[in-house]
Structures are given as C-alpha cells and as structure tokens.
Amino acid sequence: MMEPGGPYLDSSALLSPLGVLRCLQALFGCITLSLVAHDGGFGAASGHFCMFAWGWCLALTALILSFEFTRLHSCLSISWDNFTIAFAMLATLMYVTATIIYPIYFVELECDQCQSRNFRISATSSSALACIAYAVEIHLTRAKPGQTGAYMATTSGLLKVVQAYVACILFGALLSGSEYSRYPATQWCVGVYSLCFIVTALVIALNVSGRAGLLRCPFDRVVVLYTFLATLLYLSAAVIWPVFCFDNKYGSMERPASCSLGDCAWDSQLIIAIFTYINLILYTVDLIYSQKIRYIAEP
C-alpha cells in the first residue's frame, strides 16, 4: 500500500524503461487493430482469433498501465509481479501465433487489390513489433540467477505458461475433426492433455492470486513432483498417439488424397503429434530447471 500523503499518480509507470515498453505495446496493438479493421480484412476462425489476440492483449496492457500509473494495483489481492510477467509471456505467445497465422491466411503477394494487401502487410509488421516489445519485457523482468523474485518470473514459471498455451493448441486440434474417440488409447492421450493442463493452470492461478503460501505442504516440492509425473504422462502420450494415428494397422502414414485443406483428420492428428512432443520437451526442461531453483511461496 502507498504511504499516506504520497502522490496518487506514479509517473515512473510510464517513463521508466518498463513503462515505455508497455506504452509501445499498446501503441503497436492499436496500430495493428486499426489497420486490420480499416482495410486489412479478417474472417473465418483464423482471422477472428487474430483479432481476439490483438484486442485482448491491448485491453490488458492498457489496464496494467492504468493500474500502475494510479497505484491502484497495490489495492488488489493478487501477486502483481506474478500477474504482469505471466501476462507478458502469454501475450508474447498469442502475438507470435497471430503474426504467423494472419499473413498465411490473408496476405497474397499477387493481388488485384494491392491496397488491402499493403494494409495486411503493415498490420503483420506492427504485430511483430508488439511481439518483440512483450518479449523484451520478459527479458527485463524475469528472475536473474542468484536473485529472489516471483515464481512466474523464473524459467520454471514462464515454462508453465508456455505449457498451458501449447495444451490449448492441442485442444483446438482435437476439436478439429481429429477422431480421437476411435480408440481408448487416443482417449487416454486426451486425458493426459486435460489433466496436465488443469494442474498447470492451477499452479499459475495459485501464484498469480498469491495463494500458493496457504498450502500446508512445500509448494516447490509439490510442483517438482507434478512436473515429474506430467513428463511421464506426456511421454506415454508421445508414444501412444503416433502409433494409433499413423501406424498402418490403425491409421495411415501418408496423408489421404481425399483430404481437403482445412478439413482433414490426418492434419489435425499430425498437429497433435507435433505439439505433444513440444510439450514433452517443455516439461522435461521444466523438470531440469526445477532442480536449480529454490522458490519461497508468498505468504
């Protein structure tokens, strides 16, 4: 809480290096949304996701700037440092995804209406700049070796956000006609993705809310144990999913010729296999880094 008689507004929230970065994030977010809304164009699920990512990140960035400038963040019953860096990590991931997806679906180098193409290229460039700004914020605020900081600022904490985000991509692919219900083994994989996502999200929520210290057991040991179990579970999914989707006995090694672009179970299964291995690597790296830090939960 701020001291009685102190200033109500904190100019460093806007003028400090971190404050300038957040102002740039908001500026590039506004430019991106304006360009796309004016003549860039967006449609279908991919375009709506990009608009949601840009709009949601802009709204949260503006909220963070407002709360820090007015010092109202000290009145919130959450761990502000955990919240801001977790959001910066999530915003970076969402901007990376939108910056890749938008030009793939909406930018055509050979076009009849080149003015619209130019707007879309400019929007993609602005989105990339915002992504860099969020990434630089992570670099500035993450916990340095030998320093005591918020759990979400550690490598393990940042990896938790990436793991949860990758799980969301898996769920999206599962719902896109992946035919996961054909075999009990693939249903087991869905259970693995769901269980690990729920527990990872709970770890993030406990730290962001500042409630991790209320647990009656050592939080860091519980997280390490969970990370070890999640690694084993993802290892099982990394073995089972490709077998029951791409082995000739259950599926197909080659993409069926009848598959149409954007509506193909084989494509969804391939995406799931790739991101299963990505999350397996993330949990393994998380487990290794968890041995190198000693985290003291906030009371």
Automatic annotation (TrEMBL):
Protein name listed in UniProt: Myeloid-associated differentiation marker-like protein 2
Transmembrane segments: 12-36, 42-65, 85-107, 157-178, 190-210, 222-244, 270-289
Alphabetical UniProt keywords: Membrane, Repeat, Transmembrane, Transmembrane helix
Subcellular location(s) per record: Membrane
Principal subcellular localisation of the protein: membrane
Protein family membership: Belongs to the MAL family.
GO cellular component term of the entry, any: membrane
Membrane topology note: Multi-pass membrane protein
Record carries keyword Transit peptide: no
Domain MARVEL, first and last residues per copy: 13-146, 151-295
KW Membrane (keyword) present: yes
InterPro entries: Marvel, MYADM-like
Pfam families to which the protein is assigned, alphabetical: MARVEL
